[in-house]
Amino acid sequence: MILNVSGRTDIIAFYSTWFINRYQQGFVDVRNPFSYKQVSRIFFKDVDGILFCTKNPIPFLTIMDKIKHPYFFHVTLTPYQHDIEPNVPDKKKVIEAIKIISKKIGVERIFLRYDPILLNPKYTLEYHCKAFEKMCRLLEGYVKYVIVSFIDIYKNVLHNAGFLNLKNITKEDMKVLGKSFSAIARKYGMTIQTCAEEDNLLDCGFIKRDCLDEEWAHLLTGQIKFKRWKARGRESCQCVQMVDIGFYNSCKHYCKYCYANYNEKVISKNVQLHDNTSSLLIGHLNMEDVIKVRKD
Fold it and tell me: Between helices 171-187 and 125-138, what is the axis angle to 10°?
């Protein structure tokens, strides 16, 4: 089993103390987001590897030495300011944390995600190209793999559409960014690929890979056979199956493009229910809950 920590919320940024508590206790409970009373219990002895995903790796620095499982580390680093990402830390601090983690775990285990790319009158093609070059220059030698994607207009994002003032991203826009990003990545010794995009930009110099394909999963876990991850609305995703231990509407970054957190009132309520000593990320177990041990 490979854990995803997490696509539903930023556990590293806001709940790293809870995570390391669960890790040391040996198990974690996860509610089924579509069937609230169904709870999966995951024992870390059944976990083969972990994929950490975060916009703020700084809290990870205090817990990384306690994690004995093999893991990859994905850091989302974008050029957006607080108008789009209200609570993401200063990007200079994020970059310094990436460097520390890279030195500790090795360049082969840390990935940079420039994700998602959106266009509007402020965040233009030229803006992205300049920002991407600066990031790559600052992270030369610390990051080898870069993953990019373009914004998806999920229904959860629509309520911010007016605020975001989005420009439709055309095929030509993708090609412009693709050719520029590919050249920049090569310049700084990095590979670049898309994430679950219909156009994988191979003709622009991108490589054909997925965020956690079978080759990387084998490198992480030593195993050979993997189930395919079936992500709703992302049929082009060819990643191996992962188990997400997060909880929707619990991320305090409040990013305006987020697909997983779309109701700030609910987020505030859920955050109040968080308890570092609970086996669940949000709230506690109830008598009505049905707990089943998950092993794959």
Answer: 20
pTM, 2 dp = 0.94
Q: Are the CB atoms for 71 and 89 separated by under 8 Å?
A: no
Identify the burial level of 61 via C-beta atoms within 10 angstroms of its C-beta, where 0-12 means exposed, 13-18 middle and 19 or more buried: middle
Say if residues 185 and 208 touch (Cβ distance below 8 Å): no
pLDDT at 260: 87
Task: Kindly indicate the confidence band of residue 238, based on its pLDDT and cuts at 50, 70 and 90.
Answer: confident
Residue 67, pLDDT above cutoff 60:
yes
pLDDT of 196: 77
Length of the chain: 296
What is the Cα–Cα distance from 292 to 81, expressed in whole angstroms? 42
Q: How far is CA 96 from CA 61, 74, 133, 148, in A?
A: 11, 15, 17, 21
**Mean local confidence (pLDDT), 92-114:** 97
Closest Cα partner for 216 from 189, 238, 186, 248?
Answer: 238
> Which of 46-50, 156-160, 275-279 has the lowest average pLDDT?
156-160
Which residues lie closer than 8 Å to 87 by C-beta, 6 or more apart? 252, 253, 254
Structure tokens at 118: 């959106």
8 A C-beta contact, residue 185 and residue 191: yes
